[in-house]
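User: Predict structure, ligand heme C.
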Amino acid sequence: MNVKPSSMPLVAAGLAVLVAIVGVALWTSPWEEDATGGAAGGPAASSEVKYDEKLAGSGKSLAESNGCTSCHTIDGGSGAGPTWAGLWGAQGAKGGKVDTAYIVDILENPPAAMASYKGKFSEADSKAIAEYVKSLAQ
Ligand code: HEC
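Assistant: Predicted complex:
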């Protein structure tokens, strides 16, 4: 870049604005992170739903190894199926509240839009997956 001496004040002003913008961004970002931080790990402090951590852990593995989480996000993001974040206790597509019995039933008699898992999971495995969905209640 060939900067003429006469344009130096302009360049300096431009730099000052840039520095100010970066400064503001650096100043505000820690606060934004603070607001979302603490969402991960352990029984969520903000949630009153109690769940079995060990059972939810094996449900998580089952859900991941069986591809559930390729259609269902766990963070509220969009996917082929509804996100599991906050799904627990919500009105289910088949009617009734989403709870353990509802999820066990979904896996045996899935809604048309979902892949069928009929006969794939033992009741214990279905309940573990349900516990994992429960752990994502908000
Ligand atoms: C191919 C994508 C896909 C996969 C894989 C998938 N799902 Fe789904 N799931 C869907 C869709 C789409 C719906 C919504 C169906 C509807 O609303 O009719 C759904 C609905 C659900 C619901 C019910 C939500 C409600 O409101 O009734 C549950 C619970 C669920 N899935 C759990 C699972 C579990 C557990 C697995 C893995 C064993 C799984 N899903 C795998 C696409 C998928």
